[in-house]
Amino acid sequence: MRFPLALTAKIARHIIKHKLLRTPRFALVLQLEPLHTCNLTCTGCGRIREYSTSLKDMMSLEDCLASAQECAAPMVSICGGEPLIYPKVEELAVGLLAQGRIVYICTNGMFMRKKIKEYLATIYSPALEPKLAALLAEKLISAKDAETIRKGQTDGRPVIQPSQWLYWNVHIDGLEYTHDLIVEREGVFKECVEAIKMAKLVGYQVATNTTVYKETDVREIEQMFEFFSALEVDGHTISPGYEYDAAKKDMIKRLDRKPEDFFLTRAMTRQKFAKIQEWGERFTIFGTPVYQEFLAGKRELTCTAWAIPTRNVKGWKAPCYLMTDGHYPTYTEMLEKVDWNQYGVVDSVARDPRCENCMVHCGYDPSGALGTNYQSGDNWKNVRYNFGAKPKPFRDGAKVPAFNGYSVGKGHLAEAKAAINSPPAAMNGAQSVLQRREVSNLQNGNASCGSSDTSERDALLAKIADAKRSE
Question: C-alpha angle with apex 45: 44 to 48, nearest 5 degrees?
Fold first, then answer.
């Protein structure tokens, strides 16, 4: 099977039950944001700006668990912000699993290895030594880490342990060069890969979560799938980058960039995702084949954002994960008070101008899962896809040049930070960096970047400002 039988059966039972009950609207996935604090400032993410006045606020553990009970979605995606910063993320994961939920922990990967080491400490015995030896050989843990694990757990807290009902869902937006640029920090891709390798060696299920933007090279996305297939990643979520209000404001005010240069229109999305069905055959793509047809421009779907509700520190966010027209105290009140007919695109006409270019999975993937078009055989397509053979790992993916330039000290802020930390002043530092780059380019046979180019100097000075903010 493409997906584990138990997970598929749980979701199918949920859908069938509500179909038989003729429930007009019900939740499939809860996007649970216990906090909006994050250790990264990813380009295209508007969360920090939208909730800038409540970044220190957190949902209580009790509220988180009650929210899952309230909407009764079979699947909960713990997101944010960076959920591994949440002080009780372990208790939250354990509590959701105890409720019978399928749990996805959506993370940027920076704290994953720490959480996995904490789990290993709880199960340590001499029988674990071969596993520690393998982790040491792969340089996924240090000798000091191994000694700490051997001492066992000291605080008695719950840990995030492997389960057939739990996935690490790691944010990956391309190979090293692209991903580190988008997350605005060097070395993140390398850490994500090491965390994924460690998770798979220890026995966790791991997925990746990718957003495609205007500048994304489609061939690179395919190579990314190949690379992680070789690592035996269990599945992938992929969605187009959409210019929702908070992201547009962040793009303009923080980065001084034009949103139209970064986000996708509907026409662009269909071009970028032209091969999505082929990818769905080669790799385990999370998302229905109906949604894949929609992304490829082969059909239309109606938005069903109510099926993937968002609960955060301010309440139930409406109408969807990306757009905010209010927060409600209960899921039921949100369902009843929001005029859902005001949103989405129907017959190629946007009911709300903000919806015009949206083809994001949180609005349209549930439309495919609910099998709303019986004449198109949607239900049969979903059954055939879910119960089809799982794609085999693509071993040649290990040959993909995934580490293509954005490791620590080589990223898009590295030169700016060097200019900050070396005399003379910033302008002279920028001039110096440009001269060194010019020499390097000449040595490598590349065209000169031109140290006298004012626009390039200005661009580097803008990077210097970014670097100062990031320190």
Answer: 140
DSSP annotation of 391: P
Q: What digits encode the pLDDT tens for the residues 260-309? A: 777 888 999 999 999 999 999 999 999 899 999 999 999 999 999 999 99
Quick one: angle between helices 426-443 and 454-470, nearest 10? 110
Report how far residue 210's alpha carbon sits from residue 16's, in angstroms, rounded to the nearest whole number.
30
pTM of the full predicted structure?
0.84
CA distance to 77, 418, 435, 444, per residue, from 448 (Å): 48, 20, 10, 10
Domain borders along the chain are 5-399, 414-470
Q: What is the Cα 191 distance to its own chain's centre?
A: 15
Q: How far apart are CA 197 and CA 405, in angstroms?
A: 20
C-alpha of 406 from chain center:
19
Backbone φ and ψ for 32, nearest 5 degrees, come out as: -105, 115
**What superfamily in CATH does domain 5-399 come from?**
Aldolase class I (3.20.20.70)
From CA 178, how far away is CA 183, in angstroms rounded?
A: 9
- Dihedral of CA atoms 297, 303, 308, 313 in degrees, nearest 10, equals 120
Distance from C-alpha of 266 to C-alpha of 349, rounded to nearest angstrom: 12
Give 429's contacts (C-beta < 8 A, 6+ positions apart): 418, 419, 420, 422, 423, 464
Tell the residue number behind the tokens 């032209």, with chain if given.
274
Is residue 65 within 8 Å of 103, Cβ to Cβ?
A: no
Helix (H, G, I), strand (E, B) or coil at 295: helix
DSSP state of 441: H
Alpha carbons 44 and 30: distance in angstroms, whole number: 22
Backbone angles phi, psi at 237, to 5 degrees: -105, 135
Q: Which secondary-structure segment (H or E) carries 171? A: strand 166-171
Give tens-digit pLDDT for 4-45: 889 999 999 999 999 999 999 999 999 999 999 999 988 877
DSSP letters for 315-327: EEEEE-SS-EEEE
